[in-house]
Structures are given as C-alpha cells and as structure tokens.
Amino acid sequence: MTERLLAGGWVAWMALRAEQQGMRTRPMVVVVAVIQPVALLFVVAGTRDLTPGEATVTVSAVVLTAMWSATVWTAGGVLRRERGYGTLARSVTSLYSPSLVLFGRSLGATVYSAVGILASSAVVVALLGFRFAVPHPGWLLVALLVVVASGTALGMLLACLFLVTRHGLAWSGALIYPVFILGGLLIPPDALPVWLRWVPALLSLRWVHEFVVAVSGGPVRLAPLGVAVALTAGYLLLAVVCLRVAVDAGRRKGTLELV
Amino acid sequence: MGVPAVEVTGVGRVFGRGRHEVVALRDVTFEVAQGQILGVLGSNGAGKTTLTKILATLLEPTTGTARVFGHDVRRELRAVRRLTGVVFGGDRGFYGALSGRDNLRYFAMLAGVGRRTIRAKVDDALAGVGLTDAARRPVETYSKGMRQRLHIALGLVAEPRLLLLDEPTVGLDPVEAERLRTSIAALRRTGVSILLTSHYLLDIERLADRVLVIAQGRVMVDTPATEFARSAGFAATVTVQGRGPLPARLDSYGMTVESVEDQGGVWTARLRVPDWGGEMFQQLSAALADADVLGVDVAPVRLEDVYALVMQRLAQDEPARTAQDEPAGAAGVDRR
C-alpha cells in the first residue's frame, strides 16, 4: 500500500515538474500571471486611498480573478496541448491512472500560475504602499490552499471538456468573462438577474472570495470555505469521470492520436 | 515455445459511420512467436499503423480478439502495457521545451520504470541511441533523425518483452538506419519479440523471421521470410551483355527471359533463374558457350522485387475479391 502511494505521489510529482518546465516557455503564462494581475491592481486601486479592509478585499478579488484566467489558459489547456505535442495517447494510456497524470500536470500549472500571480501582486502592493487588515493570517493561508486545490480540480475538468470538443481554444476565451461576472468578481452577485443567481453558487472562487472578505473584516465564518471545498471535491470527481469517459471513447473511436 | 507473444484472431477495425465509414482492418489473423521478428509490409493506408495501435492498446478492435502474451488488449490493458514498448516515428510525440533526458525520464516513468533505476536506465537508453551528448538540449532543437532516435530510446527504456516498431528507420540517414537495424537484431538475441512495420524493405529483409503483407486491411501473405523470397518464383536475375547473334537456348534449364534489348549490335538479356548455384552456373555457361559475351551480372532476388510482384498479383485479383465481399455488406466486416 505504502509502495503504491509512493509510486502515485512520484507520478504526480513528475507530471507536475514536467508541466512546470514546459510553462517557462509559454508567453500566455506571463499574460495571466503577471500582466493581468498587475494591470487590474493598478486600474482598480492605483489612484485610490484604500482602508486596510478594502485593500484586502480588492487584492483578494484581483488574485482570484487572475487565478480563474490562469486556470482556464494553463491548467485547462493541459490535454489540448498534449494532443498538439502528440503526447496525449502516451500520457493517458500509461501504466498509471490518467487522472493521476492529469492531476500532477494541472497542479503544476496552477501552482506555477499562483506563484506568479502572488509575486507580481506583492510587488504592486509594495509599490502602492497598501496596508492590509489580516486578523487571521492562518485562515488566509488555508484559503490560498483551497484556491490552488480548486484551480487544479477545475483545470482538470476543463481540460477534459476541452478534449472532447474540437473548439477548446474558443471555449477558453468564451469562459473568461462570464465567470468573472457570474462569480461576483467583477460585479456583486446581487446585481445579476434573479434567474441567474444560482450560477455563482456553483463557482468555488466566489465562496473563497466571500470567506476572505469575511475574515478580513470580522470573525471567521467557515461555511463559505466548506462550500468551496465541497465544490472542489465535486469538480475533481467530475473530472475523473469525464477523463475516463473521454479516454475510453478515444480508444473506441480512434481519436487518441499518438503522433 | 509457450504462449505466443502476439495472437490476433479475426480482428477488424472500422472508423466512422454511414457514408464516412472506413474499414481499416478486415478479419486479420496471425501470430508472433516469442523471440520472433514479424515484418509487416503494406502500402500507405493498408492498415499497418491501425494494427500497431490496437496491439499498443491505443485503439480498440471493432471485431475479433488480440492478445499480447495471452493478455487481451481490450480487457487487460495494464498487463499488455507493462509488456509492450511502442516506437512511432515522426517529429511529434515529445515536449519540445524539455530536454531529451527530461522527456525520456518522464515517459520512462509512465512506462513503469521504477524510481530507483530510472536514472541509470534513461542514461543507458540515451547512450544506446547515441544521444548522450545532446541529452540536455531541448528536443525542439533536435534534428529529425535525433528525434527518431529518441523515439527508439523511449520504446526500449522500459525493457519490454514485445516491441512494436512503426517505421523505425524513417528520417534516419543510411548509417543511422543500419546502426538501428543492428540494435534491433541484437534485441532478438535477448528474446524480445518484435512487430516491425516498414516501407523500407531493407529493414524487413535484414530483420524479419516472418513477413505479413497487408493490403486494404486484409492479410494477403503470412509466411516465413525465406518462403516469401521464394514466392517470386525465381532466385536471381542474371544480366548478360554480348555481341553478335543472341544465343538460342537462353530460355532452357528453367531460365526465363525477362527482356532483351539491342543497341548498336550489343544485346542485353535479363534472365530469371530458379536457383543460383554451381549447377545453374554450369547450365548458363553451356547456354552462352557460342556467344560473344561482354559481361555477366548476377543480382539475387530482393524482397523489393518479391513485394512488387505480390502487389501486382493482388491488384490483378482485386476485382474478384471485391465482388466476393459485396454480399457481406458494404465493408464486408461484421460490426459490433
């Protein structure tokens, strides 16, 4: 059992490392992990005097917005890129579970993006001289871990969805702004039409944002974080099922291109 | 001998549906014994790569069964993958931004090479294909031949018991190609079974124990390599050049006159001889005794000639075969 766990961990780690090595040369990573958060922070907060509470909420929203873009463009494109390289079939028909390989790659992409986003945001925050209200730094760290986990799971799910359609690239672009809006990252969810208000409830980033807003200005409310974790688990489960279906269908239809 | 390395029974594969249906394989049946090298010949679109993909568990057969060392490729994927190494040629199949070593290390891990041995095995595989010096360079800087060698290293790194080689010498210069053939021949001595598809008949000629010819998805010929060479019906082509009258007895002793050309009083006769040994040499000498012979050249029959003849015969038989297939349905394949 221990040996299997170790082997599984090693596979995920190798996949993570391979993805991160590949990300160094992708210009899109610079766009989503550096240019976007920096531009957003300057636009939203560059000319305003923010209270520590406002600063926390603003930076949190910007980081989460950038994380969503990163998830769609980096982790979400993992399998589409594999098909482009001609490595898809080898990656999903190895001795190990394709979900494990995809998890490692998606985690690698998400962590790489998250580090970029946090680092570039930190530089801007230092330049603008923001002061934060962080009464519960431990819980902020937990929220960050949930964001990474959620981005990984959502990235896996998107990667599978982008694999079964020929228009993955178009979908990537089409998904960005609707989620910004529906997730309450650009406008408050209350401003949405009534018939659309259930949608934000399905987006984990919206719950993380609610949690961060709450902990920055008052007592810790665990319910939003719990919902975010549950949604993350749901994304992960859906991704595993979706990948299995996609790989089986690929083997039946002959759409798993090796080269 | 034990269980065959590969056992394919009645395998068919259909792509698409309705008007877009393409039958890639029809009722394909053959075996590869353990330690044997099977050469698969066929023109483009004959179904060779489809067959290789089915054995590599990348594609499910529509009908029939395929087993690798007794394991069903449809149901026992893990067991089949553990025993099989695949080499698909071409420029793609790697992460261009990663080095050759990192690519190999990653795919070796996926192929089941353990943590403790992976470094040594990757280094050995790189050395085996002469890529040690280029191991740290990104694959996007590799030449076509280097990528092909990396593909081969990838197929061998997990030390498979069955190696599926799809056009392994494509893109290699003659020296590299010969070096690869020597490596493949050496693998046979270690007991590895090999299914080798190639357009290059030299690969098959040098390496294969058996030859399988596929045309339009069907197995047309399945025979030992030596028998295949004999199926041409002649052992060698003798080209004789001379002056003056053409000898009268050139088509005796089982020899066949393939062609005779005359240019400015110098004739060139091409003869096919049923075997090439001392007796045939004496008979040829007797046939040419009265002629003013300028030169004689003997070319033993090559697989290329045999293959061309086989394909020619198949093309002639095709109308009859197509008519035979019609009643069984559009494609003649029993679909699931």
From TrEMBL, chain A:
Which InterPro entries would you find in this protein's record? ABC-2_transporter, ABC2_TM
| Membrane topology qualifier | Multi-pass membrane protein
Q: Which organism is it from?
A: Micromonospora echinofusca
Q: Name one Pfam family in it.
A: ABC2_membrane
Name the UniProt key words of this record, in alphabetical order.
Answer: Membrane, Transmembrane, Transmembrane helix
Q: Locate the ABC-2 type transporter transmembrane domain: which residues?
A: 14-213
Localization: Membrane
Key word Ribonucleoprotein present: no
Task: Write the protein's name.
Answer: ABC transporter permease
The domain of life for this entry's organism is Bacteria
Annotated membrane-spanning segments are: 27-45, 57-79, 111-133, 139-163, 175-196, 225-247
TrEMBL record, chain B:
The UniProt record lists the keyword Manganese: no
Q: Which UniProt keywords apply?
A: Antibiotic resistance, ATP-binding, Nucleotide-binding, Transport
Please give the name of this protein. Answer: ATP-binding cassette domain-containing protein
Pfam name, any one: ABC_tran
Q: Which residues form a coiled coil?
A: none
Ranges for region Disordered: 317-336
Gene3D superfamilies recorded: P-loop containing nucleotide triphosphate hydrolases
Q: How does it sit in the membrane?
A: Peripheral membrane protein
Instruction: Provide the ABC transporter domain boundaries.
Output: 6-241
